[in-house]
Amino acid sequence: MTDSGSSHKSSSLSKMANEDKNEYFFTASGYSPTKQEAYNLYLRKLHEHFVQIWNSNSAKVSSPEEFLKIKILGTGAFGIVYLVRKQDTGKYYAMKMLEKEKIFRLKQIEHSLYEKKILSGLNFPFVVYLKYFFKDNVYLYYVLPFIPGGEMFTHLRKMGKFEETTAQFYAAQVLLALEYLHACDLVYRDLKPENILIDPNGYIKLTDFGFCKILKGRTWTLCGTPEYLAPEIILSKGYGTSVDWWALGVLMYEMSAGFPPFYASDPMMIYEKIVHGKYKVPSHFSSELKHVLSHTLETDISKRYGNLKDGVLDFKNHKWFKSIDWEKLLINRVPAPIVPKVKSPCDTSNFDHYEDQKLKESDKCLFEDEFSDF
């Protein structure tokens, strides 16, 4: 077990963290292997659905003229996200506009095509999906459900940190979302509070699948947010879905502390801390949280939770998640600890304010050949 670098851990806790299984930290009557096998059957059906959609491209093709732009919800490296209203139905959506020139220049064409196909096939309560798509001379367009509760990042920044019960509620949903993605042979690779939206009921939706990839073996691509990168990504060892479980550990820590475990002004210093697995544990963390983190922020993937023989059961049966009713959570029957204030279907008060931007135009179709498959 990698040393966490914490001055707050007692020697007895360190000993417990080094054991593969310390029964003290696991519930006696938890999520049984039988339940998990039944759930795996459900996941396999969702995987079949994903493959079917992947092969058929069933998202609806539309056009920019059908949507009225109302307000900017966010900006990124490749474009802008607008709140839009569909003219014929009056329904509100989030429309992601990606600039073809930037995608081409940064060699992200394959990622953009992947994102469209992946979003088209997603079908799970805690992830967004693609409703419509189209392109024009300058932009690619993804039209997604509008999630008016805003980003988790905004709520976390406002509150400073979450109570552990709140962090458990969100982490459990992220865990189920990652389990679903992995069952579909997808590695997410971009988990962070900015990519987790909160719906009007207080439940989460993972968004931004630009780094998501179908993966049945290993890949070597360096991508993601520095503070959330797993050691194996930084060391170019080749990696699989284990990187998402590491990122879950970073998220659990950041939600509970208000800051990530590996932080520095220089990205290279962040990477150095990550590969050594060194982080400090705030004194207010419960022993259960410390224990689950010590097995999730584990540099040795052969010892990392989510990647062991019991898979997600190491999380589902851990005492830190003892209050979670996994079946009720899946169908939104657990009261949410934070319910965002949403006044109307088009309320954008939970999003940061952005000045309107002048959109680019072109008389000719830019990079027509490169994006012919979109």
Automatic annotation (TrEMBL):
<dbReference type="InterPro" id="IPR011009">
    <property type="entry name" value="Kinase-like_dom_sf"/>
</dbReference>
<dbReference type="InterPro" id="IPR008271">
    <property type="entry name" value="Ser/Thr_kinase_AS"/>
</dbReference>
<keyword id="KW-0067">ATP-binding</keyword>
<dbReference type="InterPro" id="IPR017441">
    <property type="entry name" value="Protein_kinase_ATP_BS"/>
</dbReference>
<dbReference type="Pfam" id="PF00069">
    <property type="entry name" value="Pkinase"/>
</dbReference>
<keyword id="KW-0547">Nucleotide-binding</keyword>
<dbReference type="InterPro" id="IPR000961">
    <property type="entry name" value="AGC-kinase_C"/>
</dbReference>
<keyword id="KW-0723">Serine/threonine-protein kinase</keyword>
<feature type="binding site">
    <location>
        <position position="96"/>
    </location>
    <ligand>
        <name>ATP</name>
    </ligand>
</feature>
<keyword id="KW-0418">Kinase</keyword>
<comment type="similarity">
    <text>Belongs to the protein kinase superfamily.</text>
</comment>
<protein>
    <submittedName>
        <fullName>Uncharacterized protein</fullName>
    </submittedName>
</protein>
<feature type="domain" description="Protein kinase">
    <location>
        <begin position="67"/>
        <end position="321"/>
    </location>
</feature>
<dbReference type="InterPro" id="IPR000719">
    <property type="entry name" value="Prot_kinase_dom"/>
</dbReference>
<keyword id="KW-0808">Transferase</keyword>
<feature type="domain" description="AGC-kinase C-terminal">
    <location>
        <begin position="322"/>
        <end position="374"/>
    </location>
</feature>
